[in-house]
Structure formats: structure tokens, C-alpha cells
Design brief:
Helix content: 10-25%
Number of helices: 3
Number of strands: 15
Shape: globular
Radius of gyration: 24 Å
Strand order of the largest sheet: 1-2-3-4
Length: 264
């Protein structure tokens, strides 16, 4: 019995040491996190102003409906993270994780047409793989792509050749693009969103913790020139052009609202 009690005491001692070491590490990690979050001047050094989200009234065109309840699911489990889509010659194109842009033919055949980045080991290296987000065709059939890590691209789907129009290293009005996101095309001009000028997509959470640093820009194709139209948008995301081409609608994700910007 004495031996049993001694072994039990030893085990309790070992358990206590392990628990004490674990608790010590938890305290140290908590202190580091608190220092990073609250000490001025340390990254991420973000300004923040409080705001209130105003709920929308789901009435009229915004009324809740079930139109997509019976939609057909295509290539479930095969397409990873489809983000945007575009249609050309009855074929559907979509941007996915891994840097892939796929074509889905009218016969429901799936083919990759472009990898925007470089070979990588998985989604955790998407800054290497590439992450195509928005994509649109122009009237001549050229495909324009906004890649979160590789900038604005233009692809000839017939030859498979592509070029970079706006590289990530290019400063525009004093800031490099950090998350090229959505785009639309009108009259030889690309209107596009840059979700942040402070953080990449893999650090996207920080864009939520601080004030908005997103932008809406235009790229004049013949002049190869970019210009900032709107600043300080809290994660500028999707963008569409009105039917008459007179204004843009931009989704400001973290403020939960849509913005309208007149271009003529």
C-alpha cells in the first residue's frame, strides 16, 4: 500500500508539472496576443472607427424567395471554391482555388483553361497557386481576370496565352493593390475593386478589424493606365455595371451595403 501511494504521488507530481507547464504557456501566449492587439505601433497598426450596421427591408425585388431551391448542382466536390462565373459561346467559365479557371461546356464537360499562379502544395499556399476571383469577357472574347495575388490578367482562350495588365508591384495613387477582386468592362475600360491596400487575402481578417482601405479603380485599356475612383471602402468586393452603362454598383462587404458610383 505504501508503494502504491508513493507511485500515485509521483504520478500526481508529474501531472501537476505538465499542467503547470501548459498553464504557463497559455498565460505567455495570452500576454503576447494582448500586447499585439493593444500596444500602439505594433503590426497590425490599424485605425478603427465604430459604425452601426442597418438591416435591409426584404421587400419588393429583395423579397425572400425559393427560386434556387431546385437548382442543379454541377461538379459538386470537384470544383473548389468557385468564386465568379462568365458565359461565352454557351460555355460557362469559373474561377476556383488553386489558381484554376475552368470551362464547363454545354455538354457538361469540365476542362481547366488557365492556372494563374505557380505550382504549389495546396490551398495553404494560395499566394503561390494564385486565387482568381472576378472574371469577365469583352465583346471580342478576351477573358479578363482579377487574381488576388497576381493582379489583373487578360487571357486569349483560343491560344491559351495570357498577359498581366496590372501587376501587384505597381503603385496606383501611392498604394499597391493587395486584393484585386471584382471587375466589369465597358468601352475599353476595366472597372475593378481592390479590397484592401494594407493586407493580402490570407490576412483578410485584419481588414475587418480596422477601417476600410478598399478601392474602386478603372484601367483604361488602350492607354494602359489605372486611376482610383473611390477610396476607403470596407472590403470592396463584387462590382456590376448598370444596363445603360451609366453607373456602377459595388458591394462593401464589411459595412453590409451597396454603393452606387456614376461614371457618366
Amino acid at each position: 500500500d505504501h508503494k502504491h501511494l508513493k507511485n500515485s504521488a509521483n504520478m500526481l507530481g508529474v501531472t501537476g508539472k505538465i499542467f503547470g507547464t501548459f498553464l504557463s504557456w497559455i498565460i505567455k501566449i495570452s500576454i503576447v496576443i494582448m500586447v499585439l492587439l493593444f500596444m500602439p505601433g505594433l503590426p497590425p497598426d490599424l485605425d478603427f472607427e465604430s459604425y452601426t450596421l442597418i438591416g435591409a427591408h426584404f421587400q419588393g425585388p429583395l423579397s425572400i424567395n425559393g427560386k434556387l431551391n431546385n437548382a442543379e448542382r454541377l461538379f459538386e466536390g470537384k470544383l473548389k471554391g468557385p468564386e465568379d462565373f462568365a458565359v461565352y459561346n454557351n460555355d460557362l467559365y469559373t474561377s476556383c482555388h488553386g489558381g484554376f479557371i475552368y470551362k464547363i461546356s454545354s455538354t457538361k464537360k469540365l476542362d481547366p483553361v488557365l492556372v494563374t499562379g505557380k505550382p504549389c502544395d495546396g490551398f495553404h499556399q494560395e499566394h503561390i497557386c494564385g486565387r482568381p476571383l472576378g472574371l469577365k469577357f469583352d465583346k471580342s472574347g478576351l477573358l479578363y481576370v482579377a487574381d488576388a495575388y497576381y493582379g489583373l490578367l487578360r487571357l486569349n482562350i483560343t491560344t491559351g496565352k495570357y498577359e498581366t495588365l496590372v501587376p501587384m508591384e505597381q503603385e496606383i495613387d501611392g498604394n499597391r493593390p493587395m486584393i484585386p477582386n471584382g471587375l466589369v468592362i465597358s468601352d475599353n475600360t476595366i472597372y475593378w475593386t481592390d479590397s484592401s491596400t494594407t493586407h493580402n487575402l490570407f490576412d483578410g481578417l485584419y481588414t475587418y478589424l480596422g477601417n476600410g482601405r478598399g478601392r474602386v479603380l478603372k484601367y483604361v485599356i488602350p492607354e494602359k493606365r489605372s486611376e482610383v475612383l473611390l477610396k476607403n471602402i470596407h472590403f470592396a468586393n463584387g462590382i456590376i455595371l448598370s444596363k445603360d452603362g451609366s453607373f456602377l454598383i459595388i458591394a462593401e462587404t464589411f459595412r453590409g451595403r451597396l454603393l452606387r458610383y456614376y461614371i457618366r
